[in-house]
């Protein structure tokens, strides 16, 4: 009697994918959630009702149509899109990062970025079969210009990512250094992507540099997300670049990649931009309070921040993380992400009440 051999369906899945860890989301039920750089403020009941009525009237039986173009125009107005530039939408910045890797997948191509940095730069390279080259920051989390230039000249990356400000270190890097890296990429024939996910909380935007010197930035793409604007649950990312360049990348975008409900939420938010601007100002103010308080605590080093998070170094990151969690405070333990982040925690800036709870829990723990 012949025994039928049953094939393992996992055999068709790439081995490197099977060996990967899925992106982990911490269980936050019942916790003060300060682990994911979200805007902690909710809409007023009046605005919730207004948005609900808007969403209820959306034609969800139809594919997204002209409303998506309305959103692109609204975003262009919101950021004062430079002349000669275009804007494309993504289902969050993550999708845009994946599309860039796909579009630049030429033989021998690679992606380069400072590390520690956003994990999706390396992951997008791996999933597309590209090499990823991480260049370590200095011990104080600044760009190592000499090492960056050397790596760019050796590997000639198709894409160099520069997060401005950086995640998880939360700092803005030296503009003069970035200008020289941008010029180097131009001479090598590569793209530079300025990732401004945390722009609502930043003291500077690279869009000003692009406006001032458009010719020097013909190879530069600027990426933002509405997640930090206050719409993390809506998943809208967008990218800006000179029209001819962006037109090619936009060909890779799946049809209808942005839901009509998400687009309507984003349009609603832009129509009430003053509300979200006030929230961002409150977060910036709370960031200042949090940093001043943290710097008075023995055994805590708080690093400067231009984002809605603060990186701190403590004596024992895992012990502190667990102690905070036991008190109902959820933060991000980044101490194992990179050697430079030893004993570091990343704290999202919350509401005044949440930040007071965090400070009290830290005092109890430390």
Question: Would you kindly provide a written description of the structure presented here, covering whatever features stand out?
Answer:
By secondary structure, the chain is of the alpha/beta class. It has two domains: 9-45 and 274-365, Aspartate Aminotransferase, domain 1, CATH 3.90.1150.10; 59-271, 3-Layer(aba) Sandwich (Aspartate Aminotransferase, domain 2). The protein is 42% helix and 16% strand. The strands form three sheets. A seven-stranded mixed β-sheet has the order 2-8-7-6-5-3-4. A four-stranded antiparallel β-sheet has the order 9-10-13-12, with helices on one face. A two-stranded parallel ribbon has the order 1-11. Helix 3 (66-79) runs parallel beside helix 11. It starts with 14 loop residues before the first helix and ends with a helix. 40% of the residues are buried.
């Amino acid at each position: 009697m012949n025994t039928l051999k049953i094939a393992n369906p996992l055999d068709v899945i790439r081995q490197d994918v099977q060996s990967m860890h899925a992106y982990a989301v911490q269980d936050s039920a019942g916790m003060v959630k300060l682990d994911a750089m979200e805007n902690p403020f909710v809409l007023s009941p009046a605005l919730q009702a207004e948005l609900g009525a808007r969403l209820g009237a959306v034609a969800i039986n139809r594919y997204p149509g002209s409303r998506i173009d309305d959103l692109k125009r609204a975003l262009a107005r919101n950021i004062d899109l430079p002349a000669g530039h275009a804007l494309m939408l993504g289902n969050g910045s993550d999708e845009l990062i994946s599309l860039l890797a796909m579009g630049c997948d030429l033989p021998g191509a690679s992606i380069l970025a400072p590390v520690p940095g956003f994990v999706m730069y390396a992951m997008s390279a791996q999933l597309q079969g590209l090499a990823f080259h991480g260049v370590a920051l200095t011990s104080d989390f600044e760009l190592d210009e000499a090492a960056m230039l050397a790596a760019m000249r050796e590997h000639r990356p198709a894409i160099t990512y520069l997060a401005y400000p950086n995640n998880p270190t939360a700092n803005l890097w030296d503009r003069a250094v970035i200008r020289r890296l941008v010029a180097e990429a131009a001479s090598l024939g590569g793209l530079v992507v300025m990732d401004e996910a945390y722009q609502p909380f930043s003291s500077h935007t690279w869009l000003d540099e692009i406006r001032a010197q458009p010719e020097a930035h013909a190879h530069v793409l600027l990426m933002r997300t509405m997640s930090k604007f206050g719409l993390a649950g809506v998943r809208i990312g967008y990218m800006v670049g000179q029209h001819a360049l962006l037109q090619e990348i936009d060909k890779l975008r799946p049809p209808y990649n942005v839901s009509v409900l998400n687009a309507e939420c984003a349009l609603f938010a832009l129509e009430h931009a003053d509300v979200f601007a006030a929230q961002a100002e409150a977060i910036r103010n709370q960031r200042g309070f949090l940093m001043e308080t943290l710097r008075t605590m023995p055994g805590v080093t708080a690093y400067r921040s231009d984002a809605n998070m603060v990186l701190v170094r403590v004596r024992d990151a895992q012990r502190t993380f667990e102690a905070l969690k036991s008190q109902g405070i959820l933060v991000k333990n980044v101490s194992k992400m990179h050697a430079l982040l030893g004993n570091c925690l990343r704290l999202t800036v919350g509401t005044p009440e949440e930040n007071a709870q965090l400070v009290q829990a830290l005092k109890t723990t430390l």
